[in-house]
Write a structure and sequence with these properties.
Elements (H helix, E strand, L loop, with lengths): L9 H11 L6 H13 L4 E2 L4 H10 L4 H17 L1 H4 L7 H7 L4 E3 L9 E5 L6 H7 L2 H16 L2 H6 L1 E5 L6 H8 L1 H10 L10 H6 L22 H12 L2 H10 L5 E2 L21
Parallel strand pairs: 3-4
Antiparallel strand pairs: 1-5, 2-3
Length: 280
């Protein structure tokens, strides 16, 4: 099992302590408790290294019971959606080719709140290319690779992600022939959406200009920048080809992990949730 090395920035570490109850002195003990519980469940097959388990504790503010439920839910979803999650490979030429279209852009670095930014440019999907080379499942698999990549980033685990949906080029044909009107309606009903309209002014107020591609910036902007859309695509493709990224995603979607429902008890029985309290 690889040794864990914390990569949180000073800002993220402070936020993790204040908002997620993550005490560096107690971090490994909390992970070990979750690890031991997972190892005692014959029906659950999961990685138990710190890098994998720690996000489940963070998202549940280091509540053991809630982290257990989140871990089980993680594998339940992947079992139910096996077709989408099976054998993902960020370096797959088909995924790399889809990234070339610039439909999804993962910004390098973080915004002022330490968040990763993903730009969804669904309207830039070439319908002719989509029809000849890809399926809607391929689109989902690309987005899943992006999410798995982001989940490997400790600062994103603590500070979260921001998805900027750029629908400026989205047409009715995109909705009808690729995504489906009902799926789009369902997404709007499920997700909390802040609509900025045709102006980027309110977007600039909520996230740093320095985190956006050149084409999204005003002409008079002279500050730091991440570069052109093409340079961002190139960086994404390089990141997806990194050995550690490929190995991690391949391993998680290899089929060797998951839940064996035939061995799963109807009731796990009473279990304690614990977190060390500092009482003065």
């Amino acid at each position: 099992m690889a040794e864990y090395k914390c990569t949180l920035t000073e800002y993220s570490a402070k936020k993790a302590l204040e908002e997620l109850n993550e005490d560096p002195k107690e971090r490994e003990g909390a992970v070990q408790a979750l690890r031991e519980w997972a190892g005692q469940q014959p029906w659950l097959k999961t990685p138990t290294d710190t890098d994998f388990l720690l996000p489940f504790l963070r998202v549940k503010k280091f509540s053991q019971l809630a982290a257990r439920d989140k871990l089980v839910n993680y594998w339940e979803i992947r079992d139910k959606q096996n077709k989408l999650f099976k054998d993902l490979d960020p370096s797959d030429p088909k995924i790399q080719e889809f990234l070339d279209m610039g439909v999804y852009l993962l910004m390098p670095g973080y915004d002022k709140e330490g968040r990763k930014i993903i730009i969804d440019r669904s309207g830039h999907l070439d319908l002719a290319v989509m029809k000849s080379k890809f399926t809607i499942d391929d689109v989902f698999r690309v987005s899943l690779c992006i999410m798995e990549y982001c989940l490997m980033d400790e600062n994103a685990q603590v500070n979260g992600l921001v998805v900027l949906a750029d629908h400026s080029e989205l047409t009715r044909r995109h909705v009808e022939t690729v995504f489906g009107i009902e799926n789009m309606k369902r997404a709007i009903n499920i997700w909390t959406m802040h609509v900025h309209g045709h102006s980027l002014v309110t977007v600039y107020e909520q996230m740093d200009m320095a985190c956006l591609p050149d084409s999204y910036l005003p002409d008079d902007y002279t500050g730091p920048r991440v570069g052109s859309i093409q340079s961002i695509i190139d960086t994404m493709k390089e990141s997806f080809n990194r050995k550690d990224v490929v190995q991690r995603v391949r391993d998680l979607t290899s089929g060797k992990y998951g839940i064996d429902q035939s061995l799963r008890p109807n009731d796990d029985g009473p279990a304690e949730s614990f977190r060390k309290l500092n009482v003065s």
